[in-house]
Amino acid sequence: MNLFIDTNVFLSFFHLSNDDLEEIHKLAVLIDKGDVTLWLTEQVKDEFKRNRESKISDAVKKLKEQKSKPQFPQICKDYEEYPQIRELQKDFDKKISSLIKKVNDDVAARTLKADQKIDELFQKAKLIETTQELVDKARLRMDVRNPPGKDGSLGDAINWEALLESVADDEKLYLVADDKDYYSVLDDSKLKDFLSDEWQETKNEEVQFYRRLSQFFKEHYPDIKLASELEKELAIRALVNSGNFASTHSAISKLEKYAEFNKSQANELAQICFTNDQVGWILSDQDVYDFYKVLLDNHGEILEEELKNKLIEKLKEAEPEEDDA
Q1: pLDDT tens across 225-240, in order?
Q2: What is the Cα–Cα distance from 39 to 128, expressed in whole angstroms?
Q3: For residue 24, which of 19, 117, 268, 309 is within the disulfide window of CB 3.0 to 4.6 Å?
Q4: In whole angstroms, what is the distance from residue 278 CA to residue 266 CA?
Q5: pLDDT in tens, 129-151
Q6: Residue 171 is part of a domain; what is its CATH number?
Q7: Are residues 38 and 156 in the same domain?
Q8: Residue 44 belongs to what domain range?
């Protein structure tokens, strides 16, 4: 899955955004598992560095504006609530001041969670360097007034040309950008027709467009709220699709660290013993047997009755022989 995230989406994590940093963590998990290739252009990386400070400055400014400034008419001061409200106001202002100081300290030290998560993501991404050839292609695109891009700015054009050059033919692109240079003036939830047609003609595939990273996850991983749950689901998928004994052992080792599975997950794991021969054939191997024995002991009450009984019998047949030594 080829994914490209525009600069403004990365910067939104420093500002007022509906997307949570957990989205970045989930994306990092998908990259590690090989489910997603995140394409990062040098242009996006540089734009992010250039605009980070101003975006944070604007966010801190809005935070400072949260300090309370209520106005009370003279007639309110004779009521018992008035001094209570004033004390609450003072405490609120102290807490805001303390928060602002901590934020500013982390900004200076570059230890904001947003900094850490985005830096992690950048390190995992596949970087496309800005070459003179890309700049020339982008300038020509601007000269003939083809999107994406603004007059006098080559950034978006460089990014698009970089993707056209780097993503393999016959592969879909998932693009996340909250920028009018990309989305249609008729429907801001869709990519501009020109760009969609160009990708189709050049790559023989389509572009799936999103304005928020959360929209991407909602469509492709709707039931996953936390990165830890995503890791668990991907580990289950790895066992479902294991095609040899080595990959089965690898998947089991990853699943062993999870103590809890929901009903759907537990039943799917049990079913794998009967639907994937690679798993069923080595159920007597100690690690595989131990995993399924623990699954049965801890989650037997939520397994479907017929499936539970089949698993009990299969584990009896597969029980490893004791080592006399």
Answers
A1: 666 677 788 888 889 9
A2: 7
A3: 117
A4: 19
A5: 999 999 999 999 999 999 997 77
A6: 3.40.50.1010
A7: yes
A8: 2-62+112-218
Domain boundary pick from 155, 190, 218: 218
**Identity of the residue numbered 238:** A
Domain match, 27 and 118 both = yes
- Are both 158 and 280 inside the same structural domain? no
- Condensed to tens digits (0 to 9), the pLDDT of residues 299-315 reads 998 999 999 999 999 99
| Reported pTM | 0.69
| Nearby residues of 6 by Cβ (< 8 Å), 6 or more positions away | 44, 156, 159, 175, 176, 177, 178, 179, 182
What is d(CA 179, CA 177) in angstroms, rounded to the nearest whole number? 6
